[in-house]
Amino acid sequence: MSREHFYSRDEEWLKDTGEPLSDSCQGASEPDPQVERDPDSEEIHAAGDTLSESGTTPMQSYLKHLYRLELLTPEEEHSTTCLLRDLEEKLISNLQESGTELVQLRSEGVEQRGSTGAYDHGLIIAHTEILLTSNFLDRRGRSRLTGLLQRFQQQRKKLIQCNLRLVIAIAKRFRNPSVPFIDLIQEGNVGLMKAIERFKPQMGYRFSTYAYWWIQQEIQLALRRNEDLVRQPANVQDDLRAIYRAIGEVRAQGQPASDDNLARHTGLDIERIQSLLKLPGPTGSLDDPVADDQSSTRLDYAPADELYNTDELVTNQELAQRLREAVARLPARQRTVLNLRYGLISDKDCSFRVIGEQLGLSQERARQLHSDALRQLKRQWR
Hints:
By secondary structure, the chain is mainly α. It has 4 domains: 3-66, no CATH class; 74-226, Four Helix Bundle (Hemerythrin (Met), subunit A) (Up-down Bundle), CATH 1.20.120.1810; 234-277; 317-381, Arc Repressor Mutant, subunit A (Orthogonal Bundle). Helix content is 63%, strand content 0%. The chain is elongated.
């Protein structure tokens, strides 16, 4: 899908939001009459300027600022990425001369992901600033390195800002009630910055094409992290989605959703499918609302026998503890009779005849010891 199609669709979405924006933002960004502007961009400004001041939201303020940013042409995008990569190499070369090792500039886990030649821009900037404050460079070298760093940050910021609309276009496809839309955009922005660190202009295709995958991956990871209260590994979630999708396809074809059919549609082993289907389903909070007005929750509709009474549980635990302490103060024979009679040790009640046989007493004597033990417990309880 072309980048232009993404943006044209987002422009219509921005116009249809209908949420007002503040007039103060409108006055702060008046277009320069000497600057040549794109007709589509003018149309977006006109749509935003019709909104009133009464209901500004952070999301709408962000969008209004975002859609005032100019886009890069394919030629400008290529020249920007080439210049950014050239500046990055010069900064890394200066850091190496000062004794900084390349491994200190790599993102955490880059080697494990199999990505080569990718350096964390945040680490490059941080190490460069440390180098500028040290006495390693002379005045001329410090001035030259400062200029390199400023140009590097400017080109990086330019490339990020001109692709923020792409992030919104992708985030819209993954709207989910469990994650606020602004959080999806933030995660997509993280993916965009990762793409900038790893993109190589000599690959031969557009940066936006390369960045699409990284933006989508970060958004999907955010959804996986917030999908359930009990987090499952990403590969487990992917396999479960494939299994549930295969179940729907198999049933739509009029076939039973057997393990063999699911294995044929998903490519997974039968043992893997069986183990995944045994996992517990998604969990939810009893405080989750069940109506749009949020006036009632799941707890209001839970059956009475499923409710967990915490007060009752604590009371029972205290009574059990006091009972164990009182029984422990009884004479040995009386304590043994009570333990056998009520199953305090073995969880199995015994009759007086069985108690007498185990202790070598008559049934009547066992009953007398039981009565004496109960009388002493009543005295202790008072």
